[in-house]
Amino acid sequence: MTNLREQIEADLAETLEDSDEFGLPVILISPDGVEYDAVYGQILYDTRAYDEVGIEVLDHMPVVTVRRSSLTRVPLPDEKGTWAVKIPTTPSSTAATTTFLLGHASQDGGSIGFIRLYLSKAVQA
User: Fold this and answer.
1) Residue closest to 39 by CA, chosen among 20, 17, 58
2) CA-wise closest residue to 124 among 101, 105, 102, 106
3) Distance of alpha carbon 120 from alpha carbon 63, whole angstroms
4) pLDDT tens, position by position, 90-120
5) Lower CB density within 10 Å: C or N end of the chain?
6) Which CATH number is 78's domain given?
7) CA 17/CA 27 separation, integer angstroms
8) How many CB atoms within 10 Å of residue 77?
């Protein structure tokens, strides 16, 4: 009998990464410039957030969810702003890509095998 958590992690190959169904290409670029481009994941282009007085607002900063076991190197929480992430500009695997930075600490979903990357716009100096 398969452990339920192991089965859930295995199922992420279809629920997050299946490029024919749901997954979109994600390119991660580590702080040392190594590009990891064989990753597919879920991209939420808009998320809910709260303003300074607690009112719910729509935040136009993407959140990328990827399978931890598909990553050669997992971004660490203290590496915010040092990782670049390229994602399609629209929910299409053939769309042009745009570059974001890891906006704040990744939320580790180690219990089930995924990681969320909260992105912010890359600003040219």
Assistant:
1) 17
2) 101
3) 9
4) 999 999 999 999 987 676 667 788 899 999 9
5) C
6) 2.40.10
7) 13
8) 11
